């Protein structure tokens, strides 16, 4: 590969640009749509609930991004030598086929329990209060998955999921008794509500039972005990409230209501519920997906819906960001071995210093926004429908100037990673004693691979940087099981290996003829209002859907909560996790309507 091409792919230490103020508010506004998605990253630990900031004196970061819009200026864009474009929505000539919106669809067949419709039941105070108690009981079960969990039949920590199953059975007896239930891989749930028309492909709802751990050191920061769910001021506080027991319980509530009613499906409806999503799903989601694949074959499922982003009001519009793909994933383990000795006579560079030099000088991947990326589709939607977007930014998007957009948008440290392969050194270990030279240092580097890059590009990145480093320091280099450098008098041994490599996910169809995407969008508009703009986008983190790629071409990631979650994000993965209870009720209503709408699609 020519040097120029390789540079474009893997990058070098990047130039510093003058940071324009205008983009700080643009990024702040846009990124709110994706805040739930990015909560899977470690930086979510910096986000705490507003109340916890006030009560505990923490320095939170919860200013509403929209409040910043009027405070910031547009110096950089004003100086940018591009035309202004003030055309949006119906005035956007030649842009009609971009981000076409589905039409809200009302289901015709109603469901009744006795003479009361299930929709009226959901809207009643009695159901709302009873559902709150059921939700709290599920949240109170500490169904934690840990990174070091062993096999299900060997690690006793999995037993808590049997407790959770018994709780769910007691709360939703009709679901377990009326709908076909299979236990998969120990604690996975597969509910199959057979439809009357076998020619219709089934739809699958996904959720997960597990939650992330709660650090003992953080307990004093919680307003309420994390496994004693508490309703306060319209919110439910507990570990798992937003990730992902709200969706879990909403699916059960929907099944329970419809199973009790006179309504029966034409199209088969399936709930596939894992128990180890927080540790990548290899103990449950993989086996659930395999079961569905063996039963329905390749692309045998019409639609899969899993957790993802929320709604947010910004740029003067309400957007619903539905992820149609995910970034890829790989961990790279770097290991450096050198001779030890007494620290009183150190070499020019100790083992740890050499590893540090390698990490610091390796550089980052270049931003690489491509037109095929779902994130570019998001930008097109924003340009079409947002009256408050800067006209020069709108011009760049509508002209498809991805080169300049990459340079401009990448100036946001968070925003850039929707189109840039990331590199994060998350673990480093080395040395055992203050007066002994370290003999080995190990670093674990995480990458989320953007569309336009691949596992092969990550390998090229390491080949370029590590070969040069090994030659300079006279090290044997074993790169992904291939010896690439072997000096006559080696001073050490450097190796790199890949863990859990995963290419970027296939992109589910979302264009004008994408029936599954537009049926989902029709249900969103029916449930949450026709003014909502349904936007295809990219998920920079990963979900259990990674195991379902061969089950359906229509895989979508979206959490049906019609509330402004962008400001505080629900504190997923950190202290004071919560969900607005109205948002939880939104989810029940949405699943109820989506099942009925898809049954008539």
From TrEMBL:
Q: Name one Pfam family in it.
A: M20_dimer
Show the stretches that span the lipid bilayer. 22-41
* GO molecular-function terms, A-Z: carboxypeptidase activity; metal ion binding; metallocarboxypeptidase activity
Going by the UniProt record, its keywords in alphabetical order are: Carboxypeptidase, Hydrolase, Membrane, Metal-binding, Protease, Transmembrane, Transmembrane helix, Zinc
Task: Show where the Peptidase M20 dimerisation domain sits.
Answer: 325-466
Q: Does the keyword Cell membrane apply?
A: no
Active-site residues annotated for this sequence? 210, 277
Output the InterPro entries linked to this UniProt entry: Bact_exopeptidase_dim_dom, Pept_M20_carboxypep, Pept_M20A, Peptidase_M20, Peptidase_M20_dimer
Binding positions for Zn(2+) 2 per the UniProt entry = 208, 243, 306
Binding residues annotated for Zn(2+) 1, in chain numbering: 243, 278, 573
Keyword Ubl conjugation among UniProt keywords: no
Instruction: Kindly list the GO CC terms recorded for this protein.
Output: fungal-type vacuole lumen
Output the GO biological process annotations, alphabetical, semicolon-separated. Answer: proteolysis involved in protein catabolic process
Family per similarity comment: Belongs to the peptidase M20A family.
> Protein name, please?
Vacuolar carboxypeptidase
């Amino acid at each position: 590969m020519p040097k120029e091409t390789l540079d474009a792919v893997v990058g070098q230490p990047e130039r510093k640009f003058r940071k324009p103020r205008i983009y700080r508010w643009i990024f702040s506004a846009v990124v709110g749509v994706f805040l739930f998605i990015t909560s899977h990253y470690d930086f979510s630990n910096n986000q705490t609930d507003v109340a916890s900031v006030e009560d505990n004196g923490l320095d939170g970061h919860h200013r509403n991004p929209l409040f910043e819009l009027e405070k910031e200026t547009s110096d950089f864009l004003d100086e940018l030598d591009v035309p202004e474009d003030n055309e949006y929505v119906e005035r956007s000539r030649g842009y009609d086929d971009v981000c076409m919106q589905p039409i809200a669809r009302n289901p015709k067949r109603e469901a009744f329990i006795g003479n009361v419709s299930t929709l009226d039941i959901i809207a009643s105070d009695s159901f709302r209060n009873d559902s709150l108690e059921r939700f709290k009981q599920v949240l109170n079960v500490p169904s934690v998955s840990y990174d070091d969990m062993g096999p299900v039949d060997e690690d006793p920590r999995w037993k808590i999921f049997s407790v959770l199953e018994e709780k769910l059975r007691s709360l939703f007896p009709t679901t377990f008794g009326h709908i076909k239930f299979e236990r998969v891989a120990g604690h996975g749930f597969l509910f199959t509500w057979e439809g009357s028309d076998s020619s219709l492909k089934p739809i699958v709802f996904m959720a997960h039972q597990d939650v992330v751990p709660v650090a003992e050191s953080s307990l004093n920061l919680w307003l309420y005990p994390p496994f004693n769910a508490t309703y306060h001021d319209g919110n439910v506080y507990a570990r798992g409230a937003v990730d992902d027991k709200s969706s879990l319980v909403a699916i059960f509530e929907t099944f329970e209501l419809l199973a009790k009613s006179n309504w029966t499906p034409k199209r088969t409806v399936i709930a596939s519920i894992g128990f180890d999503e927080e540790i990548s799903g290899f103990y449950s989601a993989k086996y659930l997906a395999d079961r569905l694949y063996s039963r329905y074959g390749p692309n045998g499922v019409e639609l899969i819906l899993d957790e993802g982003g929320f709604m947010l009001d910004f740029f003067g519009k309400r957007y619903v960001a539905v992820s149609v793909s995910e970034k890829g994933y790989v961990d790279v383990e770097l290991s450096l071995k050198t001779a030890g000795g007494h620290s009183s006579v150190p070499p020019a560079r100790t083992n740890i210093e050499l590893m540090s030099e390698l990490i610091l000088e390796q550089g980052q991947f270049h931003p690489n926004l491509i037109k095929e990326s779902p994130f570019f589709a998001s930008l097109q939607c924003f340009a079409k429908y947002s009256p408050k977007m800067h006209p020069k930014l709108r011009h760049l998007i509508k002209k498809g100037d991805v080169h300049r957009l990459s340079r401009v948008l990448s100036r946001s440290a968070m925003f850039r990673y929707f189109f840039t392969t990331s590199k994060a050194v998350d673990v480093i270990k080395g040395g055992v004693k203050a007066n002994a030279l370290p003999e080995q240092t190990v670093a674990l580097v995480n990458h989320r691979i953007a569309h336009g890059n691949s596992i092969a590009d990550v390998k090229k990145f390491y080949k370029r940087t590590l070969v040069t480093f090994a030659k300079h320091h006279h090290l044997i280099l074993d790169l992904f099981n291939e010896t690439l450098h072997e000096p006559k008098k080696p001073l050490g041994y450097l190796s790199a290996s890949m863990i859990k490599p995963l290419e970027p996910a296939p992109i589910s169809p979302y264009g004008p003829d994408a029936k599954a995407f537009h049926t989902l969008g029709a249900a969103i508009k029916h449930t949450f209002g026709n003014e909502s703009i349904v936007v295809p986008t990219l998920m920079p983190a990963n979900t259990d859907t990674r195991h379902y790629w061969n089950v359906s071409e229509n895989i979508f990631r979206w959490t049906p909560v019609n509330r402004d979650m962008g400001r505080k994000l629900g504190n997923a993965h950190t202290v004071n996790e919560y969900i607005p209870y109205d948002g939880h009720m939104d989810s029940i209503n949405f699943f109820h309507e989506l099942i009925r709408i898809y049954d008539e699609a």
